[in-house]
Design a protein that fits this description.
With 398 residues, this protein is of the alpha/beta class. It has 14 helices and 14 strands.
Length: 398
């Protein structure tokens, strides 16, 4: 099959959706399919690129409001997109998804969307724009697709609330490729610990965009509570890996709360150092307000880290039994959960073991890519899922 993937960002831009599209595309290429990615030229690279057999077309971006790159030249590629067997769009909140109604009108090509979860910024102005989008355009966009893929059952119910029939929704989880990480399981972390002055410390690791949506302000406040309430030992340190628009705010907050001796901001790390960060850590924390199904949690569990996260769709659907989950924006609960896992070695080891077992049994790409391939074949072979004889059953119908 000839498959088009349309995504706001792609490698070398780093993020969960980018890794998702790369891993899916790489698996499809390995299975003999032709894959072309249409994406924004952020960061700027060659207009035409090839990454591990994936043909990448990077389009000029005229702006990036709300971390949403706008590349209107995608509209000039409708004729080109007609030549594909499948068009697969990622992230319903992206400007790239706006092309879906036009593709529905002008292309006789099956359209599939991976939703990648709901969007909550944690900032009043931005969240207002999300509400306006949901009320004005999202229903039409979602109903333009022949099939929508949700990452969790709660996300599937959310999609159906926009009038999308359950026979047009399929649940497929996010995943990782263990081959990407297996050689780093026993990696030496001496240089990493020395570089960031972590030797002999108990390390609580955060990996992600340093933004309000990821709960970075809640994380800083939880650390302040731990220091005041617990008399936090000097050997506990929070390692914040990533950059983002709220990085300077997080550093200012750390300074104002007198946390600087307990926090290290590394910025974005090259892959090798990121592997060292996972291997060096004692605990992983992700206090997000919204997620699809976080790749970073899968990676942390693969490396045998106990996890603290939040009771949000996309997290509690998958990790309720193998992670400590607390309400979002609740720094008191977050501080308590972190302290409990640092102090309770029996609980920490159990969650670490069960988390890794879960990832290796269910969240690996060879399984997920095979399921995508089956969905593509059904769409190409018989048209839209609505036209089939009812043999396909969504998990929502069970």
């Amino acid at each position: 099959m000839k498959i088009a993937q349309i995504t706001p960002y792609f490698l070398p831009h780093t993020g969960g959706v980018e890794r998702y599209v790369y891993n899916l595309s790489k698996s499809l290429v390995d299975n003999g399919h032709s894959v072309e990615v249409f994406t924004s030229n952020i960061p700027e690279r060659n207009t035409i690129d090839v990454i591990d057999g994936i043909f990448v077309r990077r389009l000029p971006c005229i702006g990036e409001p709300l971390r949403n790159p706008i590349f209107p030249s995608i509209f000039f590629h409708i004729g080109n997109l007609k030549q594909f067997d499948i068009i697969h769009v990622h992230n319903a909140y992206s400007s790239a998804a706006l092309i879906a109604p036009l593709l529905k009108i002008f292309c006789d090509t099956p359209l599939i969307l991976t939703h990648h979860g709901r969007l909550i910024y944690g900032e009043p102005v931005r969240d207002t724009w999300v509400k306006i989008y949901k009320k004005s355009m999202k229903k039409r966009i979602l109903n333009s697709f022949d099939l929508s893929v949700a990452l969790s059952e709660s996300d599937a119910r959310y999609i159906s609330s926009f009038g999308v029939h359950t026979n047009k929704i399929k649940i497929l989880q996010n995943a990782i490729d263990p081959a990407d990480f297996s050689e780093y399981v026993n990696i030496d972390t001496t240089d990493f610990d020395k570089k960031y002055h972590l030797k002999g410390k108990k390390k609580v690791l955060f990996v992600g965009e340093v933004t309000c949506r990821k709960g970075i302000d809640t994380l800083m406040k939880s650390l302040a509570l731990m220091i005041r309430a617990k008399g936090l030992r000097m050997d506990v340190i929070f390692v914040i890996v990533g950059s983002g628009e709220n990085l300077s705010d997080a550093k200012t907050l750390a300074h104002d709360l007198d946390l600087e001796s307990h926090v290290v901001f590394t910025g974005r790390l090259p892959f090798f150092e990121l592997m060292q960060a996972y291997r060096s850590a004692d605990l992983f924390v992700l206090p997000s307000l919204s997620e699809g199904l976080p790749t970073t949690i899968l990676e942390a569990m693969y490396f045998g880290l106990p996890v603290v996260s939040t009771t949000i769709p996309g997290v509690c659907d998958h990790f309720d039994d193998v992670a400590m989950l607390v309400p979002p924006r609740d720094e008191h609960a977050l501080a308590g959960a972190i302290c409990e896992l640092l102090e309770n070695r029996t609980l920490s080891k159990r969650l670490a073991r069960e988390g890794r077992e879960l990832v290796m049994s269910r969240y690996v790409w060879n399984h997920v890519a095979d399921m995508y391939e089956g969905l593509y074949e059904k769409l190409v072979g018989v048209g839209t899922l609505e036209q089939r004889d009812g043999s396909y059953m969504s998990p929502l119908d069970k």
